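User: I'm preparing a small set of examples for a lab meeting where we compare how different chains pack in three dimensions. I only have the primary sequence for this one, and I'd like the structure in C-alpha cell form so I can line it up with the others. Please keep the answer compact; I'll paste it straight into my notes.
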Amino acid sequence: MLISATDLGVRHGTGFVLSNVDFQIERGEIVTIVGPNGSGKSTLVRALIGLERASTGRVTRAPGLSIGYVPQRLHIDASLPITVRRFLSLPRRVPDADAAAALERTGVAGLERRQMAGLSGGQFQRVLLARALLARPDILILDEATQGLDQPGTAAFYRLIEEVRAETGAAVLMVSHDLHVVMSASDRVICLNGHVCCEGTPRVVSAAPEYRALFGLGTGGAFALYRHAHDHDHDHDAGHGHDHAHPHHAHPHSHEGHDHA
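Assistant: Understood. Below is the C-alpha cell output for the 261-residue chain.
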C-alpha cells in the first residue's frame, strides 16, 4: 500500500468539504477521482500528499514514499525568462542526460533551450510530467493535468500516462473532468461528491445510479469509443472489490457484460 485514508474528513471553515472517505492505492494502479465542481477532489489529493490537514480520520503513507506531482495549473510569467532545462532542475539540479531522457520519454525531446512561457499547452504539460518523473516517483499524482488541452491532446496525454505506468511500475492517481477519456485510462474510478458515492472498475461505475445522477448518460458513446479492452481482469483486482461498484446508498442493478471495444 502506497497511500491510504481511513474515515478521512477535511473541514474548511464551519463545514466539511470531505467526510467519511476511505481510500487506498497500491503500486502500479491507475486510479481516477471524478466528481462535480466543489466535490472535494483537489482537497482529497492535497490531504493524501500532506498539504491539507485531516480534521477527522487519518492518512497513512508508505515510509520513504516518492511522489511526482503535476498540478492543476502552473502560471509562469512571460516576463520571467526560464528555459525548460532550468525548470527541470528546480528545486534541485539534475544531470543533463537525465533531463534529456525525461523530455524524450514524455514526447518533447529537444526543448531544453525553449522558454517555458513560449510552450504550447500540450508541450507545457509534458514538461511538467517530465519534471515529475525525474523524482523517480512511486506514485504520480495529476490534478486536472489536461486542462486547456483539446480532445486529441488529452487522449494522447492519457495514453502516455498508461505507458509510463507500464514502464516504471509507478502508481498513478488522477483527478479529472475528462469523463470521455478517463474511463479508458483507469483501473479504478472513485466518484466523489463530498464523500465516496461509488467506486469500482470504469465500466461498473459508469452504470452506477450515483454516477449517472451526477453526470447523466451523455458520456456513453465516448466511453465506448475510448474504452480499452483490458478494463477488467487486472491481476491486482483481488482485494479491492473492483468487480462491483461500492455506492454508499445503493448498489447498481445494471452491471454491463465484458464486451471488448
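A couple of notes for your slides: Strands lie at 3-12, 15-25, 30-34, 56-61, 67-70, 139-143, 171-175, 188-192, 196-200. Confidence is low (pLDDT under 50) at residues 219-261.

User: Perfect, thanks.
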